[in-house]
Structures are given as structure tokens and as C-alpha cells.
Amino acid sequence: MRRLNIILTIFSYFDCPLLKKGILFSGLFCITNISFSQKLVLNEKEYFETQGLNVLVFNNEYNGIFFDEKTAGIEFIHHGVRTVTGGAIRLHNTPEQWDLIPKMISRKVNKANNTIEVILRYEDFDFDSKIIVTPRGKGFVLNVVLDKPIPKILEGKAGFNMEFLPSTYFESNYLVDGKAGTFPRYPASNTETRPTSEKISQFAKHNTFDDRGRKEYIVTLPLESGKNLIFAPENPERTVKIQSDNQEVMLFDGRDLGQNGWFVARSLLPANKTGNVLTWYVEPNAIPNWTREPVIGFSQVGYLPSQKKVSVIELDKNDKVLPSASIFKLSEDGKFVEKLKADVKVWGNYLRYNYAQFDFSSVTEKGLYYIQYGDQKTNTFQIEDSIYSKTWHPTMDVWFPVQMDHMEVNEAYRTWHGKPFLDDCLQAPLNHEHFDGYKQGPTTETKYKPLERIPGMSVGGWFDAGDFDIQTFSHVSVVDSFVESWEAFKVNRDETYIDQKTQFVDIHRPDGKPDVLQQIEHGVLNLVAQVENIGHPVRGIIVPNLHQYHHLGDASTETDNLPYNPSLKTYESNRVSSGTPDDRWAFTHRTSFLDYRTAAALAGASRALKGYNDELSVKCLTLAKKLFNEANEGPKDAKDEDGPFSDFAKGSDMIAMLQLFITTKEDQYKTGFLNKIWNSLDENLRGNMNSALLAIPYMDDNYKAKLRTYVIKYKAAIDKETSDNPYAVPILKGGWGGSSQVINWARVNYYIHKSYPDVVDKEYVYKGLNYVFGCHPYSNLSFVNAVGNRSKNVAYGGNRADFTTIAGGVVPGLIFLKPDFLENKDDWPFLWGENECIIDGGAWFVFLANAANELSVKK
């Protein structure tokens, strides 16, 4: 209603003829030639802004690891939503993720001239370009300046691109030189093939196109082209004009090449020219006096009667805090009645928004409620005793079964995937850098030759996330966490049929066995297979080709499921093997860190599996001791402490000793643990606190008393850390969301509360869940799919192209775009830093939900 009032006001003010005639296409069409922008100014945070619009100019750079993550270059935050990204010199009409990206050489902010200037470089082509952005009129001018002509190889390829989020412009129109068109809901533009000799190679010569011997590649052709483009003329919140002085502007649909593609506005750079070679005037519309609607943060799952209940209200910096808010309860006659009206307290500024808090802890009566702040009403939520008891069920019942590798997974009328990767796996080649961060060094560190088959690996494991690889450390973390859940809470829920012999899973079908034990077994089977068949745990197992890696849909079709046979031709098969080199590779670099952490996980699993699968339990303990001894005797890898797992590497031997002691009760492991734990806490209090707390039940009273000093110090540290934001949890500011960080923070708080309830109370556990369930910045959606009254509509899983979720997956949450923008999109699943569910995050959530439920039933 608020938006409609704005629109009607605009139409009335400009005496719109379509309004007089009663013709309103979707309520909004007559503003094609009207602009409402206010002038952009360069603010103290070094981006351009006016009320309703921010223009970021390389505040965020392209990533040299995963290349184009759609979070870099020239970007718009348009009426509170990031709608445009990737403004830069690019070498393709519609760049894919692994296409080459420019490196930013310099960025100069000239406050006197009100300009931002960046120099970009393509090192492979010795090609530099300068982009200068200057506010003018109601928008800004963008100039591309070259000191020397573009290289011959880039003629007709190098151009300036600006990318528009498709979901923002679905069901909208565009105008190109006055000719109207509709943004397609599904990609339907024209493409053509060109010789591969003309293509600019992707990262490290990888190829997203298939390998079927083709000598061509696909190019997307423009939807339209002209000198004047208008995006969404009927929607003042999303209207953007582009005018080009000297080059045609082409409009492309990047989704023809990849479902994660964006709409692209592009002008080619002219050949044989220097100086100012391209000029665009860009005018994103800004509605006068626009303010973002408040976001009322609260737990979509609800609250316990006795729990502290604080709603955090996120406000536009131009908005005013209202003095009060109310709580309404559903009465017996079916009407909502006001139960509380209380003060709203100003909290202050955090990043770009202002915040207030509404404490309704005094409401303790069970029932169904909503919050009203001004004219805004939230959706309903519950206050009940058993509010946390079922929150983890979708994660265990659905999400983890769907992630199970080497299994056919069925749910009622649906088959999620067939049996995948029965051809697992080959030894990775030497000196190879994989596109997903895996590396194989100058030796295999195994008995296998490069690309030799490793037998016995088609068993167990989970897909790490939205792609279909096995990441061993993630598996270790999941096994650890499931063992903790089993031992702490004896979660014996049984809703999944799992048959390892026939490699079949049936969701919502009990089989008389606790699901958590079956999942521990499934993870352990792959870890054991690695140690027995390879000789040690490996960094990961993943497909070798980029055209496989971006696979969406049924995981069983990512390979042909037949072992590779080099004596056969590509795509030739004898029905038991094939000549297609699509089998996954094992990256087998050995580290003492991973040996120790796998030993710890196997030692813990040995306890959990005892009495359930005794043979596997014994094997787990035997291999745990073997890995521990070999890691102790072998050289320590320096890369452990400066590589991708540096935060976890220190103290990994201590973690293994603790788990081995708990399982075996052998003094050698206890002594080793005690010899290290105190120095470890002194060096890294937060990183080692969880291990110290886990040891309490197995140590004497002196240990607990000594640890208390560290716990008090830890409490002071987290209070200081979380005091910078109104949610009072640790909010991660990076390119990967921080849901797991908050969950683990709350998990540690649970262990502290159990042993030192006078130091940390229950609220430190509940606050973590409240955040994940909706009391967080940007929106109030639950970050656990299908949990809570309103949860994520889309997520980054194997089914992301369907714009849906897998129930129970925990999304990373909010990514941070410098200098001040936290984002979690719910209309575009392909941003993995915001929406990709990972296995260890899911397992940690299962523990935390059970922990909160245990606290809720203890008086």
C-alpha cells in the first residue's frame, strides 16, 4: 500500500494522462520520459549517494580465486536493493563465472572533483583501461579512457559491461531507442556458434562448454541495441536510463550460457583509438524523499515463555524511530487483541542503518502473536514451551539424506538423485591447480600414479554443498558434530530408510535405526575408505572438468558412472567401463592437520557406533590410532598453519588426543592433552575453548576450576566483540555469510552454561538461534530452509536452477559488501556466499537446536 501511494502521488503530480484514462499497466506505466533523480554526491565512505540510491565504484574487487562472484565493480544499491553489479571492462558479451576478470591496479577518489577513477588491467594481454565516474545532472557520466589502443586479439571482444539482476527485472519492460520489449522470465534470446579459435580462453584454459569434440563455442546475441536504453520504465524504484554518446549499447540475456547469468548492457570499445573511447550517461531513478521500510527482526520459529524476547528494528537513516510498538495475540474468538504496548528504545547506528529495540519479554502467555510497529505488522509467530523441539527435523529428515553421495535418494513420488559416482575415483595429476581451489603438488604421496584408478572409493560421504564434491575436512566436522549430538542428547529420531548394501535411501520411511547413527556411519564409510585405499585422508574428491562442475540437477548424471578406461575412445563404452575422462579426481596431498582431525573424528565415531555397527566401530578406532601415530612421527607440514585451514590447524593434535582419551581412557592421551590445552588457550582462546569445555566431564575438579578463569576471560571477549551491533552476536563481515559462525558461538555458549551457569546464561544460546531464525539484518526470514513461519524461498543447492530450496539446509546468511552493506537475496539463489548450504553448517545447527530444546525443558 505504501508503494502504491508513492506511485499515485507521482502520477497525480505530473498530471499523468494514463491515470486520467484509468489505464495503469500494472499500476505504473507513464513515467518513461520522466526522471525524479536527485543529485549524487561523494560521501565519506567513498561511494556516490543520494536518497534512495548508492553507486559503488570498485569498493569491492573481483575475486582472483573464484573470479566473478557478482559482487564487484560498479554496482547500484537502488532503493535498498543491490540490482546492478559488474560494471567493468569485460571480454565477453555475457561473461561466465570463470571468464577472465580485470585486476584493479589503482582506485583514486577525488573529493574536490567529485570523481572516482579506477585503472583495470588484463595481465595476459598487457591491456590497461581507465574508468572515470563523475556525477552529472540526475545521474553520472562514465568514461573509458585508453592510453594505447586495445590489442588486436581483443578487438570486437573488449567492452564495457554493466550487469542487471534478472529477478529484479522479471515481468518488467525495457525501451531501446523508443522500441519496447519485455525482459524474458526464461532465457529466450538468440545465440550462435563461433570457432573456438576466436574465443578468449577461460581461467587456466578451462572450458565451461562441453568436451564433445566440438570446434565451436556459443555466443549470446543481443536482445536489442541502440543509443538510449531504459530499464523498467513502469517501476520508479527500478528505472535506469543509459545513454551512449559514441557507441551502441547492446542488451543481452546471460542466462543462455548459464542459469546464473544476468542481463547485460554492453558497448564494445572501438579499435585503433586512444583517449576517451567510450562515454555513457547513466541515470538510476531516485524517488524523492524515499525511505526504506523498517525491517522488524524477530524469530520466525517463536519464543519460549520464559525467554528474553527482543525485536531489533532496522531503519533507514532518514527514518525516525517511533516511540512504541505493540504485541497482538490471537484470542479464543479468532481475533487478534493487543497484549502489550511498550517503548521502542533507540540503539544507534550500525553500518548503513539505524537500529531500535523492542523488548516484549514480559509477554509469557502461550499462543500466536504478531508485532506491530507503526502501520507495519509482522507475520505471526508462537510462544510455546516446545518451540525448539522440531526445528532440526527437516535438516536430518530431508537435507542430509539428499546430500548423501553414492546413494539413490527417494522421497515419496520424487527421486532426488540416482546413485552417483559409482566410477569414483582417479589419482589427481601432478602439479595441478583445480578451479575449485584444490591443488596437487609434485608427488602423489600415495602408491598411485597420476590418473590411476583408486579402488574401493564408491561408498559413503556427503556432497559438500551445492556442488557434488567430497571435502574431507567438512566430513570430519560433520562426524564430530553428529557424535556430539548423539552423546549429549541421544537423538534417536528415525524417519529415514538407509540401506548401504543396495545404496538406497527413502525419506520419511522409518527403518528402526536412529538416523543420526546411520549418518555417522555414512560419513565414516568414506573416511575409512580413504585411509584404507589411499593411505590417508585427502583434501577432496571432485570432478576434473569445468563443464561438469557447473552441473545442476541429478548428481548421478554428472559422470557416466562407468570407470575410466584409457584404451577406449572418448564416449565409447564396453558397458563396464568407458573412455570418457569424467571420473572424479582425488587430491591427495597429505597434511598432519587432516590426519589428526580425521583421527579425532574416527575415535569419536568409534564410541557412537559401538553396539550399532561393532565391526566398523573397531575399525574406526584402529585407524584413528594409526593416523595419530603417523602424524606424530611424520614431518609437520608448514602449509597446515598458513593454508586454507590455518584457523583449525593449531591444536589439531590436541583435539585428536582428547577424543582418543575419551574413547580408550588411556593415560598417554590424557597427559598429551593436558600438556597442551593451557598454552593453546593462551594462544587462541576462542579457537580452543570448545575442546577445553568438551574435556570437563573426563577431567578432575581442578581442571574445571582452572578453566573457569579462561571462561570468564572468554565471556568478556565475546561481550566486547558483540557489543558493536544491536543483535549482540558475532556478525561476520566477508564474502561468505556468518550463520555458521553465530551457530558455533552459541554452541560454545551452551557448553559454558552447562558447566558455569553463573558465567553464561541460557540467553547466550537462544540469541544465536534467534539470529538464524530471523532476528538479523536485511530481512526477517529464517536462514534455515522450511523452518519457521517465513523462511528462505530460494537457496544454492543442486536444485538452484528451479528457484527453490531443500528443506533443512542452513544458508550462510549475510555477505558484506564494502563499505557498509549486508545482503541476503531471496530472489536469486546463485550467490553462493549468501545462499549455499553446507554440510558442517547443517550438523552444527542440529546440535544447537537440540541444545536449546534441552535447556528449555530444564527448570
TrEMBL record:
Family matches, as Pfam families: CelD_N (PF02927), Glyco_hydro_9 (PF00759)
GO molecular function, one term: cellulase activity
GO BP: polysaccharide catabolic process
Record's protein name: Glycoside hydrolase
Polar residues bias locations: 557-580
Hydrolase as UniProt keyword: yes
Gene3D superfamilies: 1.50.10.10, Immunoglobulins
